[in-house]
Amino acid sequence: MTGWRVREFHNDDLDGILHLWEAQRRSAHEPVYDLSEVVASCQKDHAIVAVHGEELVGAVVGRAAHDQGWIVFFGIAEDWRGRGIGSAMLAALEKRMAPHGLTKLSALIPENESRVDAFANQGFEAKHQLRYFERRIPVQRQELTSLAELGGRLLPRTLWESVAGMRREKEILEQRLVLPLAEPDLADRYGVVPPRAVVLFGPPGTGKTTFAKAIASRLEWSFVEVFPSRLAADPRGLAGALRETFTKIAELEHAVVFIDEVEEIAAQRSGEPPSPLQGVTNELLKIIPAFREQPGRLLVCATNFIRALDSAFLRHGRFDYVIPIGLPDDAARLAIWQRYVPEQVVREVDLPLLVERTAGFSPADIEFAARSASQRAFEAAVRNGATAIGTDASGVADASGLADASGRPAGPSTEDYLDAIGTTRTTVSAETAEAFLEDIEALARV
Ligand SMILES: Nc1ncnc2c1ncn2[C@@H]1O[C@H](COP(=O)(O)OP(=O)(O)OP(=O)(O)O)[C@@H](O)[C@H]1O
Ligand SMILES: [Mg+2]
Prior knowledge:
Rossmann fold, Aminopeptidase, binds magnesium ion, alpha/beta, 19 helices, Helicase, Ruva Protein, domain 3, 6-stranded mixed sheet, 3 domains, binds adenosine-5'-triphosphate
């Protein structure tokens, strides 16, 4: 098999390049440059092919980025290796690209690719001690308009970690929701069907909204909150507006869609006089099956009144899980206190005592008590002449803002916290807590 030659790329060569790219993906690993990038560079940048008669047996594609050129594809058909085709193509590519003012030409080669002679022959030098990092941009440009129209956004990546305590809930959400959605191929191999819709229920302030956002953050999916009460003002009517919203959501690659206080639109249809929002229950019931058919999205509904929901709404097949988010136990309250007590005093404050005194508090109650203690302690410190950056009136640095007279680090004390706890009214009454336990018994599905 002789008689190959190297020439410039023509559009007719694309098919052959596609085959080479596919072959490479099967044999080595996912190529660094996506096929779409390679094709774009064939057409707009620089490409050289090797042919034997009509057959395309090799290709190299390069792209100049300022002074540096990158080889975005290098491939030779299996039967045509070891004949100098690679070196010849690289030489031709360099000749073509050099006039553009390149100072160097670079290539990324899979670590397990042993056949790199062509590069060595052409004077490429292997650079060791380099590692390749790659990050997929979670929201692609073409989605940005839809996302903006929906009022959706990409949340910071740290929200999941910042949910303190709540180990049990976190574990359930991670195992049932996050992992199958983040690893759909693996889940599929085990016959696990990734969830499409879930309900979070529990007393006020226990972290339902926080968790919905944390899930989106953890998956790096866009977070889109749907506000039925706002849609109600839409001239198309609530049902039409809801339909329209979900059509737009379907344009996103990935999304966590959140409906808070879902009982407002999915309350039991019989009984009391129908509220204007109730007409929409049917619409939502119709939307969910279509929503469930699209991968890469999760509907999260939250409610304080799970028992008020229409039973048809909750039935199997619509929601994969109905997950209780309850009051934090001792360990969770400790974690939550640790989160809200400033770092410089956290070792001085009697946290176990705070944990004990806040049994029955929701995370929101603890947050409120912690913030009031901080505010009061801060006001007292200012009254007593503490300054912000630790300089006294003469401008000489001192520790007044950093420690009190006894040398204790400045900040709220255990007393401040106990005072604030004493004046915080818990949101969740004993009856509500009791009713929640009954709801878990009757309606939870995890
Ligand atoms: N595990 C947690 N760690 C730290 N802060 C938390 C935690 N859970 C909730 N919070 C805080 O408590 C407040 C209330 O939480 P969130 O709004 O998520 O509760 P919710 O269950 O959605 O309440 P509602 O039923 O009233 O909508 C928020 O300010 C949140 O930051
Ligand atoms: Mg909420």
